[in-house]
Specification:
The protein is an alpha+beta fold and about 110 residues long. It has one domain. About 25% of the residues lie in helices and about 35% in strands. It contains two helices and seven strands; from the N terminus they run βββββββαα. The strands form two sheets. It has a five-stranded antiparallel sheet, covered by helices on one side. Helix 1 packs antiparallel against helix 2. The two termini are about 25 Å apart.
């Protein structure tokens, strides 16, 4: 899934089950990423896009921190993810709700 707000990357294990996902959000303003890996849990990072000018385009990197606007991300994902498979959509929604419930703010 990719649009002007989100990029969703899903990783699969060899047996076909979901190993984890990374949901990048607010792509055009203040990009951040929520990552969930089975057996490891969550992380929340800010994204340095690597862009420092029109003639230089570096590799994006993640670095820890940043507030997690969980309610907004959950709401936007519900609105924008209707085209995803039901399995992936439910997995991401449930993990986002879990992350929000844990009271994590990414710092």
């Amino acid at each position: 899934m990719s649009d002007d707000y989100f990029d969703l990357i899903v990783w699969y294990a060899a047996d076909g089950s979901v190993h984890g996902f990374q949901l990048c959000y607010e792509r055009l303003r203040n990009e951040r990423a929520v990552t969930w890996i089975r057996g490891e849990g969550f992380s929340h990072d800010r994204v340095d896009t690597g862009d420092s000018g029109p003639t230089k385009n570096g590799t994006p990197i993640l670095f820890p921190g940043g507030e997690f606007p969980g309610a907004l991300v959950l709401h936007e994902f519900e609105k924008r993810s209707e085209e995803l498979s039901r399995e992936i959509r439910q997995l991401v929604l449930s993990r986002l709700a879990e992350f929000l419930h844990e009271g994590r703010n990414g710092t």
